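Whiteboard transcription, Tuesday session. T.W. wrote the structure tokens on the left side:
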């Protein structure tokens, strides 16, 4: 029996448009159609809301052709006020049809204009329940500098970093470059508000710094330069507790790098060689317990809603939180679902759990 209508929202204006679309393919495939009626809503790169095809295969992750939302001439019309939950669609010929009431929105959006609190604020204005982190947690989690500052204030160990802008470098370039050099080599240069390793560079020689900054500034006006930590790259999934309970943390996964400088975009999504995702990975019981404790603390520090993937560097004696991702990669081969599958929660059950949590508020 169909219990609810779920609007799956994907695509978007960020540089992670195709990854969002590929994630939607997995989620559309996994949603329990005996319980949920699905309304697939794509957002074009220009920001138009279109009624998409309910066809998971159309958005399969193909390294030779990344999926994309194209403008098919339709326009999804959101409720006119918070007193209604009816969605409508204006067809290409101008006719308008009702899509019925929506019970919950599943915003599978990565990067800016979706994962950063903007779509969450929009949905809250309409009083529409949605999956995942709320407005504030999304905004904090999207900005790496803010995330690190909040975690550091909460006593969560983070990787040392320096945050720069073009204006800082223009005004006091020598000062800021000295601060960056104090981190030592190598360093990683990252846009403050981008994901999927877009715009990230590893700098092993200071002569490479300016070029790496330019790559990052192409994605964001604020850039982080982070100290490199020698250790294992460990990740885990976190889900909010039910009925006021403690956050739930998955078993650990590990990114094993054998032939690349770091876990970059090509390795994450384009099946490039040199990377293995191992989940669960081998760790002592005490190490797993400590990782789970820090992950839960980090999750609660930034807001404790919905879901996240917490990324660590593990030196063998210490865990450093690298990022808290509030809408992690969610393709069937991504680390977040893999860790939950290893922990006993199937991909389909994970999707159902997220929808049910959103409906319960």
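and on the right, the sequence the group agreed on:
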């Amino acid at each position: 029996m169909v219990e609810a209508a779920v609007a799956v929202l994907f695509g978007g204006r960020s540089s992670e448009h195709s990854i969002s679309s590929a994630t939607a393919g997995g989620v559309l495939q996994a949603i329990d159609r005996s319980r949920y009626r699905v309304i697939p809503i794509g957002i074009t790169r220009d920001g138009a809301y279109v009624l998409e095809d309910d066809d998971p295969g159309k958005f399969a992750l193909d390294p030779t052709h990344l999926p994309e939302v194209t403008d098919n001439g339709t326009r999804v019309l959101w409720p006119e006020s918070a007193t209604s939950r009816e969605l409508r669609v204006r067809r290409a010929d101008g006719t308008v049809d009702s899509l019925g009431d929506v019970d919950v929105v599943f915003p599978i959006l990565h990067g800016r204009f979706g994962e950063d609190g903007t779509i969450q604020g929009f949905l809250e204005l309409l009083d529409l329940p949605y999956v995942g982190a709320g407005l504030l947690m999304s905004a904090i989690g999207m900005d790496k500098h803010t995330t690190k500052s909040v975690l550091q204030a909460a006593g969560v160990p983070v990787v040392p970093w320096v945050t720069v802008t073009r204006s800082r470098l223009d005004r006091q370039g020598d000062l800021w470059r000295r601060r960056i050099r104090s981190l030592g080599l190598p360093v990683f240069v990252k846009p403050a508000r981008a994901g999927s390793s877009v715009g990230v560079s590893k700098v092993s020689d200071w002569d490479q710094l300016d070029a790496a900054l330019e790559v990052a500034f192409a994605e964001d006006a604020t850039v982080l330069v982070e100290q490199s930590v020698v250790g294992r790259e460990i990740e885990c999934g976190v889900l909010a507790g039910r009925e006021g309970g403690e956050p739930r943390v998955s078993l650990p996964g590990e990114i094993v790098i054998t032939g690349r400088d770091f876990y970059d975009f090509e390795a994450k999504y384009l099946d490039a060689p040199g990377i293995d995702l191992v989940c669960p990975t081998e760790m002592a019981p005490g190490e797993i317990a400590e990782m789970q404790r820090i992950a839960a603390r980090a999750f609660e520090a930034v807001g404790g809603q919905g879901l996240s993937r917490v990324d660590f560097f593990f030196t063998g004696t210490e865990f450093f939180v690298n990022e808290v991702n509030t809408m992690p990669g969610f393709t069937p081969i991504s680390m977040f679902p893999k860790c939950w599958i290893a922990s006993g929660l199937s991909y389909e059950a994970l999707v159902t759990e997220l929808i049910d949590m959103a409906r319960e508020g």
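Someone added at the bottom: Residues 285-301 form the longest helix (17 residues).
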